[in-house]
Design a protein that fits this description.
single chain; alpha+beta; 4 strands; 32% strand
Length: 88
């Protein structure tokens, strides 16, 4: 399943966030599809795939002390439309 995570942090946490990024280790079971940084600062977007709840937790939990993470399951819109057409 695909997930879009948006991490948001306060400006005063910037240095701590940078240290976290230096030590980032992606757990087994997580496949990163793409990542983006908000050029105005304070936000990071990551699209990743996993079917493993333990990997999901291991990937997000280490960040919970320095930022807020809004993580939602997502699907490409064309795929979603095919799915919806099957259920009509």
């Amino acid at each position: 399943m695909l997930f879009m995570a948006i991490s948001t942090w306060k400006p005063e946490n910037r240095d701590e966030i940078m240290e976290h990024f230096k030590e980032l280790k992606v757990p087994s079971g997580i496949t990163i599809k793409n990542q983006w940084v908000d050029l105005t600062g304070g936000r990071y977007f990551i699209l990743f795939e996993t079917d493993d709840p333990e990997s999901y937790g291991a990937f997000n939990l280490p960040w919970s002390d320095v930022c807020e993470i809004d993580c939602v399951p997502v699907m490409e819109s064309a795929e979603f439309m095919k799915l919806m057409n099957k259920h009509q």
